[in-house]
Design brief:
Number of domains: 2
Strand order of the largest sheet: 5-6-4-3-7-11-9-12
Distance between the termini: 51 Å
Helix content: 40-55%
Shape: globular
CATH topology of the largest domain: Spore Coat Polysaccharide Biosynthesis Protein SpsA, Chain A
InterPro entries: Cellulose_synth (IPR005150)
CATH superfamily of the largest domain: Spore Coat Polysaccharide Biosynthesis Protein SpsA, Chain A
CATH class of the largest domain: Alpha Beta
Protein name: Cellulose synthase-like protein E6
Radius of gyration: 28 Å
Strand content: 5-15%
Keywords: Cell wall biogenesis/degradation, Glycosyltransferase, Golgi apparatus, Membrane, Transferase, Transmembrane, Transmembrane helix
Structural class: alpha/beta
CATH architecture of the largest domain: Alpha-Beta Complex
Order of helices and strands: EHHEHEHEHHHHEEHEEHEEHEHHHEEHHH
Subcellular location: Golgi apparatus membrane
Number of strands: 13
Membrane topology: Multi-pass membrane protein
Bound molecules: uridine-5'-diphosphate-glucose, manganese (II) ion
Length: 546
Amino acid sequence: MERRRRLFETEKVGGRAAYRFQAVTVAAGILLLLYYRVTHVPAAGEGRAAWLGILAAEFWFSVYWVITQSVRWGPVRRRTFKDRLAQRYGEELPGVDIFVCTADPQSEPPSLVISTILSVMAYNYPSEKISVYLSDDGGSILTFYALWEASKFAKHWLPFCKRYNIEPRSPAAYFFNSEGHHDRCPPKELSFIKDLYEEMTNRIDTTVMSGKIPEEIKLNHKGFDEWNSEITSKDHQPIVQILIDGKGQNAVDDDGNVLPTLVYMAREKRPQYHHNFKAGAMNALIRVSSVISDNPIILNVDCDMYSNNSDSIRDALCFFLDEEMGHNIGFVQYPQNYNNETENNIYGNSLQVLNQVEIAGLDSVGGPPYIGTGCFHRREVLCGRIFSKDYKEDWNRGIKEKARADIYEIEEKTKSLATCTYEHRTQWGNEIGIKYDCAVEDIITGLAIHCRGWESVYNNPQRAAFLGVGPTTLAQTLLQHKRWSEGLSKVEFVVSSKVILCGMLVIINIPIYEAMFLRKDKARIPFTVTLASIGFVILAFLIPIV
Ligand SMILES: O=c1ccn([C@@H]2O[C@H](COP(=O)(O)OP(=O)(O)O[C@H]3O[C@H](CO)[C@@H](O)[C@H](O)[C@H]3O)[C@@H](O)[C@H]2O)c(=O)[nH]1
Ligand SMILES: [Mn+2]
């Protein structure tokens, strides 16, 4: 049989030899420094304590440096072949569910959230195979209103994007910091769509500022009835509203083409139940989407990360659908790039080393971590499936024509999956879905997926797939790093807690070892007692093995 051509290839990043040479010189420097410290310890009373303290610190940084080499030693780059994907599959491609998370209409303005939503609705991909879900942890009628406006604007925006093949497809980014693709379309049409967009954002911004939705607008959609004066962001019933039903009759754009499904979800919130932040929202989305569209691939993005490259879905599929390697791949991670870098990048927020070198380095040793946004997962992998080479993904899942229930029935059914108590006494947040109880839920979820045998790949194409809003001030930077560090040290602690515990026990027991082996006075423990203790220790170690 003819061997199929690969849908992606892996290249080594250039400059490895230069980096390795530099690393060897640094290693030599570190060793010489440690040698000097160890051989020149001053006498007691002449600064010995400070010397030993510095030695300990330098030793720790040396260990840290050695560990970081594992992620910088062999970075790789992936290249996809979308033309081969097109030749092989045409438009017979799997469905994709896209999750966007938002939490607060004040700090994450709804007009920007919907720009992200519109950018992912406008992927260069068959619309009937895309379902977009917005999770609103703020449970805000203002965000719902903005999404309803977006569902109407999409009818003009999507055909416009596809007709002139514009990039990026976030209207906010396209109109206000575009790279100049405006010449691709007739000026009249451009100003028409721009006016529509500006009118819409003005309406949304003034409504958000006033904090109230005009009564006449509320008459336009039944979804507004979900809110009453008692609802707060921390105390409300589950809300699921299907704003565009892609499988329905009326879901067509201006050109008569099908529109993607668009769903608003605010999971139930009650003060007495812990909501588990973004992880809780994602898990509710996994369940709700399994009833509405149930597509085999899930992409999730933060609401401030718009799609900057309309080919990213096809790019990601080059990995999953590759005949040789695809079946090993659990998720495809894209980097977090920002479009609001500060001058000279003074706080290092563009994450260059992480994005270009370290995550690419991890990609050569089992795969990148899951970093919370810009990631394509297999639904089954998020739901806890353990890797097996016999497993065959059902790529038609979700597309197969099911007897479609009434839209109201679906909404009612899915609400029951987004309640506070649904997960009680289940494995959600543990073996199933995104993990709970960690500030970096994404990292531990990715590690768990690796532990179940799946690999991941990192794709960093020339044209950034997603662009977000990064921190720009020192205060924002510190807050983000504090959260990341807290979360990561927890991961580190879980992994190394046993080692630390054993080390502490050894240190606490130093006087006993002294009495066993070193002391020559009366306090020395008799040899027979030492022997008996060693015997007991060995026995104690054997117990868990037996
Ligand atoms: O209760 C919450 C809190 C946050 N979010 C959403 O989660 C996302 C990330 O939260 P943010 O406060 O912006 O955190 P960042 O530090 O910017 O997030 C980075 O770090 C997180 C933890 O590692 C990852 O989950 C994110 O994807 C990654 O962008 C945003 O879209 C929020 O709207 C919720 O949906 N519910
Ligand atoms: Mn963020």
